[in-house]
C-alpha cells in the first residue's frame, strides 16, 4: 500500500471513530449477475443475467467516488464475463485507478484466465479441497488451479464461504493458499443464510470450531487475510449491522452494506467477516484497529 493511501485511510478512520461519522469508504459495483456457474450456496446469480453497459458502470463508479469511497470492488455474477464491445473487466479496473480509487479489487470464480495485474487483489472463490469445492461449484477445481498457475501476477486471494459442505476443509484451503504460486492470502466468510440456502448455515459451535482452525493456521504462518480479534463477534453474531462505511450499487440501486440488507432478518445472521471487521474498526475497537493496519499493510 502506498504511503499516501495509508495516510488517507488513517485520517478517515480517525475522523469516523472520533466523530461517530457514517461516511462510506468501501464500495462495490455489481457489473452483472450473469454467471457461468450455479453454486449451491449462491442466491444472487442469473436473476436478470444482464450485463450492464460500460457507460452505466462508469457513471456508478463516479457516483461512489464522489461520495468519498476509495476502496472499490467489482463483483458479479462472474466479473470476467463482463464485456461491452472491446471493453473487459481490465478496462474497468484501469479506469477506476485513473478516477482516483486507491484500492481496486475484483471478485471472480476463477474459471476464466487470470490476466489482471492492474487489480490490487483478485478475490478468487475456492470452497475447499477438490471434492468439497466441486460439490458446491461443479467440476471446476482443476480448471481454477490451472488458471492460477498461469496467472500473470501474484495478486490472488482465495475467498472461501464456509458452510455445511466444506466446514472441514478450512485447513486445506489455508495450506493451499500458503503453498500455491501466485496466491497471496486467503479470506474467509461464514455462509449467510438466504432463505433458499438456510440448510447450509453453521451453528455457533461449528463457527467456533472453524475459527479455532483458522487461528491455528495463522499461528502456523498461513497467509490469512482476516482479523482474529473479530472472531468472537462473528461466532456470536454480536457485531453491529449494517456497516454504514460500505455501499453496494447494482443497476442504479444503492444499498448500505450489501444486497442482503433487503432480506428481513438476514443482517442478524450475517456471515461476512469484513462486515464484522469494519463495523468493529469504526466503532473504535482497539484490538481490531491495530490488527487491521498490520494485516492490510501486509497483504495489499
Report on this structure.
With 300 residues, the chain is an alpha/beta fold. Helices cover 38% and strands 16% of the residues. It has 10 helices and 10 strands. The model has no long low-confidence stretch (mean pLDDT 96).
- Which strand order spans the largest sheet, edge to edge or round the barrel? 8-7-6-5-2-1-9-10
- How many H/I helices? 10
Please provide the count of β strands.
10
Structural class: alpha/beta
* Beta-strand percent range: 15-25%
Low-confidence stretches: none
The chain-level mean pLDDT equals 96
**Global shape:** globular
* Range of helix content: 25-40%
**Kindly, what is the distance between the CA atoms of the first and last residues, rounded to a whole number of angstroms?**
6 Å
Note the main sheet: 8 strands, mixed
Secondary-structure element order, N to C: HEHEEEHEEHHEHEHHEEHH
Rg measurement, Å: 18 Å
Fold blueprint:
Elements: H1 3-19, E1 26-30, H2 54-66, E2 71-75, E3 83-84, E4 87-88, H3 89-99, E5 103-108, E6 121-125, H4 130-137, H5 141-149, E7 156-162, H6 170-179, E8 183-190, H7 204-219, H8 231-236, E9 246-250, E10 253-256, H9 273-282, H10 286-299
Parallel strand pairs: 1-2, 1-9, 2-5, 5-6, 6-7, 7-8
Antiparallel strand pairs: 3-4, 9-10
Helix pairs in contact: 2-3, 6-7, 9-10
Note the main attributes of this structure:
300 residues, alpha/beta, 8-stranded mixed beta sheet, two-stranded antiparallel ribbon, 10 strands, globular
Short description:
The protein is of the alpha/beta class. It has helices spanning 3-19, 54-66, 89-99, 130-137, 141-149, 170-179, 204-219, 231-236, 273-282, 286-299, and strands spanning 26-30, 71-75, 83-84, 87-88, 103-108, 121-125, 156-162, 183-190, 246-250, 253-256.
Amino acid at each position: 500500500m502506498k504511503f499516501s493511501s495509508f495516510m488517507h485511510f488513517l485520517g478517515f478512520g480517525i475522523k469516523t471513530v472520533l466523530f461517530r461519522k457514517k461516511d462510506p469508504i468501501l464500495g462495490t459495483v455489481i457489473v452483472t449477475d450473469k454467471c457461468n456457474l450455479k453454486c449451491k450456496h449462491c442466491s444472487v446469480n442469473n436473476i436478470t443475467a444482464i450485463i450492464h453497459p460500460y457507460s452505466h458502470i462508469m457513471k456508478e463508479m463516479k457516483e461512489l467516488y464522489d461520495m468519498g469511497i476509495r476502496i472499490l470492488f467489482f463483483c458479479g455474477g462472474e466479473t470476467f464475463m463482463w464485456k461491452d464491445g472491446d471493453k473487459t473487466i481490465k478496462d474497468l479496473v484501469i479506469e477506476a485507478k485513473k478516477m482516483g480509487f486507491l484500492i481496486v479489487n475484483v471478485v471472480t470464480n476463477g474459471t476464466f484466465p487470470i490476466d489482471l495485474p492492474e487489480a490490487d487483489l483478485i478475490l478468487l472463490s475456492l470452497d475447499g479441497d477438490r471434492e468439497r469445492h466441486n460439490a458446491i461449484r461443479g467440476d471446476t477445481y482443476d480448471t481454477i488451479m490451472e488458471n492460477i498457475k498461469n496467472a500473470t501476477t501474484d495478486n490472488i486471494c482465495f475467498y472461501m464461504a464456509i458452510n455445511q459442505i466444506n466446514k472441514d476443509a478450512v485447513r486445506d484451503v489455508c495450506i493451499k493458499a500458503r503453498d500455491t504460486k501466485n496466491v497471496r492470502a486467503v479470506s474467509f466468510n461464514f455462509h449467510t443464510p438466504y432463505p433458499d440456502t438456510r440448510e447450509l448455515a453453521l451453528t455457533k459451535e461449528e463457527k467456533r470450531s472453524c475459527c479455532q482452525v483458522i487461528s491455528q493456521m495463522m499461528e502456523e504462518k498461513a497467509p490469512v487475510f482476516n482479523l482474529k480479534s473479530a472472531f468472537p463477534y462473528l461466532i456470536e453474531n454480536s457485531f453491529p449491522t449494517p456497516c454504514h462505511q460500505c455501499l453496494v450499487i447494482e443497476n442504479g440501486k444503492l444499498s448500505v452494506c450489501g444486497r442482503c440488507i433487503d432480506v428481513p432478518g438476514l443482517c442478524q445472521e450475517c456471515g461476512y467477516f469484513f462486515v464484522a471487521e469494519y463495523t468493529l474498526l469504526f466503532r473504535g475497537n482497539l484490538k481490531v484497529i491495530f490488527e487491521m493496519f498490520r494485516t492490510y499493510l501486509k497483504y495489499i
